[in-house]
Task: inverse folding
């Protein structure tokens, strides 16, 4: 029900904003934007959504919503339905580095 292609928007606590895409497929999360790619896992049950993702820079000139970081790991929780999700998260081992995310499903798997 949740597997598919999603357009995501995110904003960090330093008021930095970004957009990207993710594919959710059987517990696997893959995606990216113009500067970073994302690889992780998720679990969705009863409209609850949680997971972790490693965010890795692929563009040497790119800057993340947390600043100029080569790679980092996020953990997130939120709510999801067939068409939308919203989640909050933070960099693992740095709970002050928070992020909010929303997603809109564009294609089913």
Result:
């Amino acid at each position: 029900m949740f597997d598919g292609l999603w357009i995501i928007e995110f904003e960090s606590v330093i008021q930095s904003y970004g957009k990207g895409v993710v594919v959710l497929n059987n517990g696997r999360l893959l995606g990216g934007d113009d500067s970073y790619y994302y690889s992780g896992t998720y679990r969705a049950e009863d409209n609850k959504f949680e997971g972790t993702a490693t965010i890795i820079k692929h563009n040497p000139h790119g800057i993340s919503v947390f600043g100029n970081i080569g790679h980092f790991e996020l953990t997130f929780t939120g709510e999801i339905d067939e068409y939308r999700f919203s989640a909050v998260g933070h960099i693992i081992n740095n709970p002050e580095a928070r992020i909010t995310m929303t997603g809109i499903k564009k294609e089913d798997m």
User: Anything to note?
Assistant: The domain at 4-108 is CATH 2.40.128.380 (Lipocalin). The chain has no helices and eight strands. The chain has one domain: 4-108.
